[in-house]
Amino acid sequence: MSCWMPGCPALSMCRGLAALPITCLERAKDLKTRLSILLHKPELGHKTGSSSKLQLGSRRRDSSQEVLEWRESFDQLLKSKSGVNAFHTFLKTEFSEENLDFWLACEDFKKTRSKTKLASKANRIFEEFVQNEAPREVNIDHETREITRKNLSGATSACFNEAQAKTRTLMEKDSYPRFLKSASYQDMTRQAASRGSSKRSHT
């Protein structure tokens, strides 16, 4: 809207806006942005809800028998992809997921065939998990740490074997029993058992 006539309301409005301090205009813009965020929040909530439903759906697809097998042995848990995921989620609640991440990194490392990649991967794993004050330092003794350090000079697929074994034992003796007693796993076993019984009743 524009007007050249003296005393025009539009002209006086424009002059009024121009006279306002810049800070006031910036605040008005900030308020507009905040309002638009608030207006879009229900949509974000809806998306979150749908993604949680998808996660529940994927959980239900887990084999009932497989979930129950995780309590038979730590090996059974580690053999199952969904078991490893469930255990990793539990370890996060205890702030000790680096132990499982290190074990998985070692498993992947053993599959490396290229000697060049083997050396670079070995250094990366050592710096991330094994060396003193590493970003995600695993709980191993000084002797094992030093043996692993020496192994890096001629990196082979076995250079982390001792450190990996110590970490595995720690998880098996310490974290794994607590995982089996956790509310999340108990809930999963109840669901698995009820699905199993409903299947039997339909046969």
From TrEMBL:
PROSITE patterns: RGS (PS50132). The gene is Rgs16. The keyword Cell membrane does not apply. SMART domains: RGS (SM00315). PANTHER family: REGULATOR OF G PROTEIN SIGNALING, REGULATOR OF G-PROTEIN SIGNALING 16. Residues 183-196 have a biased composition (Polar residues). Regulates G protein-coupled receptor signaling cascades. Inhibits signal transduction by increasing the GTPase activity of G protein alpha subunits, thereby driving them into their inactive GDP-bound form. Plays an important role in the phototransduction cascade by regulating the lifetime and effective concentration of activated transducin alpha. May regulate extra and intracellular mitogenic signals. GO terms for biological process: negative regulation of signal transduction. This is Regulator of G-protein signaling 16. The keyword Lipoprotein applies. Residues 1-19 form the signal peptide. One of its GO terms (cellular component) is membrane. Residues 73-189 form the RGS domain. SUPFAM superfamilies: Regulator of G-protein signaling, RGS. Residues 182-203 are annotated as: Disordered. Keywords: GTPase activation, Lipoprotein, Membrane, Palmitate, Phosphoprotein, Signal, Signal transduction inhibitor. It is found in: Membrane. One of its GO terms (molecular function) is GTPase activator activity. It is a lipid-anchor.
